[in-house]
Amino acid sequence: xxxxxxxxxxxxxxxxxxxxxxxxxxxxxxxxxxxxxxxxxxxxxxxxxxxxxxxxxxxxxxxxxxx
Length: 67
What we know:
The protein is mostly helical.
């Protein structure tokens, strides 16, 4: 939670709380999906990988469009 707080008040500029929370949640979702695939050998197919990359692209996009 401290890192979430610090991300909203970076010295390089302020990031809106909604964007920070979306990035925070997205990183958690991607991390959980990847750990499930790597550690617990969950099945991987095209659509699972596709949507993980879509989520990553959305997180990066949010960062670029936030003021």
